[in-house]
Amino acid sequence: MRLARKLIDDGMLGTIYHFRAVYLQEAGHDPAAAVEDCWYASGTRSGVLLGIGSHIIDMARFLVGEFRTVSGILKTYNPSRKSRSGKDETVTADEANLALVEFASGATGTLESSGVATGRKNGLMWEINGSRGSMVFALEDPNHLKVFTEGAAREIRGFSDVSVTDPGHPLQTIYLPPGHNAGWEYGHVHALHHFIDCVTHDKPVAPWGATFEDGYRIQVIMKSIADSSASGRKVALEF
């Protein structure tokens, strides 16, 4: 993410046209699954948009910028499930959602998150298209960023599979040699290190860490997507 943001800030992609992202999991794909086995429908009953859709909203804002408008659909495919004890439980939390986004920059985007995507374990993926290049990322392959630029000759032009493990890459660990892949846990280590460093040295957390303002704005965006789904109308963001 840090490398992608740097390439965008450096103008490598030119004018950003499109951002598309999905976050797909399969927890509730089976209608016979107990409600307790569907994380979004039990406990806090957060729904999928709040539970995982929030992450790709956060990512979209970090990479492309602020939202201007949203048009959304929230869907609950299985409004009733059995509990493990056999009791009928009403499910009101969304099981999937889609949103069309207009960014303040003029770029457009699509966001989709689902808890009923059969076969998907933790499928977070995004693509950005610009006037001079594009980038693709998949969370299940966290050590690689696919980058396309127009600099290469047409005969060999294509996406480069960049292994972001060299010492010069942002947040590459100092204790792993180049090419030695970092896993999911390293992201949490880096986040904690950044936060503690900011507290210790009295530095601002933004833009490399999320602030309370970021959290607030993501909540407003999710509420607006839900309002759009209920009304069938596009919603302009107001913070």
Polypeptide structure, described:
- The structure is a single chain.
- With 239 residues, the protein is of the alpha+beta class.
- It has a single domain (2-173, 212-230), classed as 2-Layer Sandwich (Dihydrodipicolinate Reductase, domain 2), CATH 3.30.360.10.
- Helices cover 26% and strands 27% of the residues.
- It has 4 helices and 11 strands, in the order H-E-H-E-E-E-E-E-E-E-E-E-H-H-E.
- It has helices at residues 2-9, 47-63, 184-200, 212-231; strands spanning 16-24, 67-75, 80-82, 88-90, 96-103, 108-114, 123-130, 133-138, 144-149, 160-163, 235-236.
- The strands form 2 sheets. Strands 10-9-8-7-1-6-5-2-11 form a 9-stranded mixed beta sheet. A two-stranded antiparallel sheet has the order 3-4.
- Helix 2 packs across helix 4.
- The longest helix is centred in the last third of the chain and has 20 residues, at 212-231.
- The two termini are 25 Å apart.
- The relative contact order is 0.19.
- The model has no long low-confidence stretch (mean pLDDT 94).
